[in-house]
Write a structure and sequence with these properties.
three-stranded mixed β-sheet, single chain, 3 strands, globular, Uracil-DNA Glycosylase, subunit E
């Protein structure tokens, strides 16, 4: 993907749980906690019918913290789907990192399926 590739996002917003690039691209819990108020503000601006897709366990936990929800009530797993108390739909996927794709923990078909499910849940 490149800026001039002709692709456009429609009805989609991309954000991160951590707003800086941490060392080795592995955010520390304190960095996630520090940035959570920014994520909470972004998520609260989404429509109530929004579908949120978290890529990875860090993002999954950050979304739940942003909504002040208990992690134990919404366990992380690939293709997990929860209706949040405010009506938003919440899906999670394994992160599409090189490690997960090279080990085939996450395949192209698995990722397509979870994105397809997110699209199906959109109003």
């Amino acid at each position: 993907m490149a800026r001039d590739d002709g692709l456009q996002l429609r009805g989609c917003r991309i954000t991160n749980a951590v707003k800086c690039l941490p060392p080795q691209n592995k955010p520390l819990p304190q960095e996630v906690a520090t940035c959570n108020r920014f994520l909470a503000r972004e998520l609260s601006s989404l429509p109530r019918a929004a579908v949120i897709l978290a890529l990875g366990g860090v993002a999954h936990g950050a979304v739940l913290r942003a909504f002040s929800l208990k992690l134990k009530e919404f366990p992380f797993g690939h293709a997990t789907h929860y209706a949040l108390p405010d009506g938003r739909q919440f899906l999670s996927s394994y992160h599409c990192s090189r490690y997960n794709t090279q080990t085939r923990r996450l395949t192209r078909d698995m990722f397509r399926d979870v994105v397809r499910r997110a699209v199906e849940l959109m109003p």
